[in-house]
């Protein structure tokens, strides 16, 4: 399945794709999807030769433009929502940590089944590291999944929790902010036209003055917004998100929302006439991943829907935003999800629940699961807390096995991946209905005007040298 040489790669394209100056022309779309694409995306992820890997990524992105798939910003839809239009639904944003090609395909199948155009693929800063999915790779995988399922139209890819580490900032703020800027640059170049800046980690509740509590948060958010505006491609307005309360911390208040927004706007205004954020993430009682109990089940969470509704209303009516964003929602009970559209929640982020579905699927080979759990007990032993059960420890650490076991999961037999994919598709189908994003495809395609941004072959090859951080990652509270 691996290409051995560039010549081998080019030979596989014959009578299917023509490479022309400035792009690719797919001459046989059916063969491209059924015979070529799976091989291209495997090599785009796993080939050891960066030139072959980069060429595969470039070809997939070029073919996407030729076949009507474009990565896009959701800004225009959120602008309409901020003016009071197109309401009554909540956009799901899904973090895919493992089996990414197959899970993304399942999500797109469910979207097509429900005529849904309002859904986002995302990956958090921390996830990029422990799942070993840098932006260039992740974007290519999502685009390939859309092509494989015959989807056309805008595809929304988002950088989630592009976060400032408070401890590292205290030691060397320039280094910490430079690292975040590099990630933003890499992401925009990869096709991420939606980015959530999370400087809520810098909120200092020890200060008595609300403005001083939020100061570093709104100042950094404004600086990063201005930086994004410098980098965004011509014709694209990247959708930027802000955050006022760290997920897992104290619940957000109306006063905090107004304080952040007023001072963020003033700070951004001093940098020129720049478009601000399109949504605001708040804390209403959830934690990332949920709280595992000794038996490995997840504790029930009482989410403050009244606060969520109030904050969404103020965000829209006073600041023209699409509304509030709810993080850490994938482990909530099923009956909670239809409440998000009713409270005017603009966007809901879903991650751990889909990870759990992979690990707990009856179709995942027991031998592979046992191998993964044995690896975690050895490699992450230092993170185990006193009195923590095996079930709690595994639940909290198993997300970090997706990187080391990525190829083993990708190369599972097709029958196993299809069975897990069907479980995922059914779950997405359920969530899309609960969040009321059914029959939004035509509306989204009318509102969103995707821009064709030609991929750069040299840049795609260069991006293949960066496979994300390799050091052992110990997550701090608030990281996903």
Outline of the structure:
With 480 residues, the protein is an alpha/beta fold. The protein is 49% helix and 11% strand.
Q: Overview of this structure, please?
A:
By secondary structure, the chain is an alpha/beta fold. The protein folds into 2 domains: 6-66, no CATH class; 77-360 and 404-451, TIM Barrel, CATH 3.20.20.70. The chain is built from 20 helices and 11 strands. The radius of gyration is 21 Å and the shape is globular. Mean pLDDT is 92; it is low at 467-480.
CATH superfamily grouping of the largest domain: Aldolase class I
- The structural class is alpha/beta
Number of domains: 2
Helix-residue proportion: 40-55%
Q: State which percent range the strand residues make up.
A: 5-15%
Radius of gyration: 21 Å
Key terms for this structure?
single chain, TIM Barrel, 480 residues, disordered C terminus, 20 helices, two-stranded antiparallel sheet
What's the helix and strand layout?
Layout: H1 6-11, E1 17-20, E2 23-26, H2 29-46, H3 50-66, E3 69-72, H4 75-82, E4 91-95, H5 100-113, E5 120-124, H6 125-130, H7 135-148, E6 153-163, H8 166-171, H9 173-190, E7 194-198, H10 210-231, E8 239-243, H11 254-269, E9 279-282, H12 305-319, E10 324-326, H13 339-342, E11 347-350, H14 352-360, H15 366-379, H16 390-397, H17 406-410, H18 414-434, H19 441-447, H20 457-463
Parallel strand pairs: 3-6, 4-5, 4-11, 5-6, 6-7, 7-8, 8-9, 9-10, 10-11
Antiparallel strand pairs: 1-2
Helix pairs in contact: 2-3, 2-7, 3-7, 3-20, 5-7, 5-18, 7-9, 9-10, 10-11, 11-12
């Amino acid at each position: 399945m691996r290409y051995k040489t560039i010549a081998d790669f080019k030979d596989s394209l014959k009578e299917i794709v023509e490479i022309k100056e400035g792009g690719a022309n797919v001459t046989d779309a059916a063969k491209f999807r059924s015979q070529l694409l799976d091989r291209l995306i495997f090599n785009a992820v796993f080939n050891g030769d960066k030139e072959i890997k980069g060429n595969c990524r470039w070809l997939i992105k070029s073919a996407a433009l030729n076949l009507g798939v474009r990565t896009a910003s959701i800004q225009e839809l959120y602008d309409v929502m901020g003016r009071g239009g197109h309401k009554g639904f909540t956009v799901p944003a899904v973090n895919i940590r493992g089996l990414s090609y197959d899970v993304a395909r399942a999500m797109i199948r469910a979207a097509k089944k429900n005529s849904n155009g309002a859904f986002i693929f995302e990956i958090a800063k921390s996830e990029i590291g422990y799942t070993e999915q840098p932006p260039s790779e992740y974007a290519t995988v999502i685009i390939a999944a859309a092509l494989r399922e015959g989807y056309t139209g805008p595809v929304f890819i988002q950088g989630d929790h592009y976060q400032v580490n408070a401890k590292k900032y205290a030691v060397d703020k320039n280094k910490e902010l430079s690292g975040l800027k590099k990630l933003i640059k890499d992401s925009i170049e990869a096709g991420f036209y939606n980015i959530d800046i999370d400087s809520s980690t810098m909120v200092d509740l020890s200060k008595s003055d609300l403005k001083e509590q939020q100061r570093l948060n709104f100042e950094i958010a404004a600086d990063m917004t201005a930086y994004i505006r410098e980098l965004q491609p011509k014709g694209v307005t990247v959708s930027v998100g802000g955050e006022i309360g760290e997920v897992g911390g104290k619940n957000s208040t109306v006063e905090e929302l107004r304080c952040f927004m007023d001072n963020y706007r003033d700070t951004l205004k001093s940098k020129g006439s720049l478009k601000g954020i399109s949504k605001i993430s708040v804390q209403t009682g959830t934690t990332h991943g949920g709280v595992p109990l000794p038996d490995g089940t997840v504790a029930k969470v009482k989410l403050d829907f009244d606060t969520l509704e109030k904050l969404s209303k103020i965000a829209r009516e006073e600041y023209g935003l699409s509304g509030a964003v709810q993080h850490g929602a994938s482990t909530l009970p099923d009956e909670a999800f239809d409440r998000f559209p009713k409270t005017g929640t603009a966007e809901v982020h879903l991650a751990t629940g889909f990870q759990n579905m992979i690990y707990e699927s009856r179709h995942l080979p027991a031998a592979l699961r046992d191998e993964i759990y044995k690896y975690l007990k050895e490699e992450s032993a230092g993170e185990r807390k006193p009195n923590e059960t095996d079930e709690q420890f595994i639940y909290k650490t198993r997300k970090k096995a997706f990187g080391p076991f990525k190829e083993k999961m990708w190369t599972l037999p097709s029958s196993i991946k299809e069975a897990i994919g069907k479980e995922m598709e059914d779950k997405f189908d359920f969530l899309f209905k609960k969040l009321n994003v059914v029959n939004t495809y035509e509306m989204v395609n009318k509102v969103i005007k995707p821009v064709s941004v030609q991929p750069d072959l040299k840049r795609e090859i260069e991006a293949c040298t960066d496979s994300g951080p390799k050091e052992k990652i110990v997550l701090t509270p608030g990281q996903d």
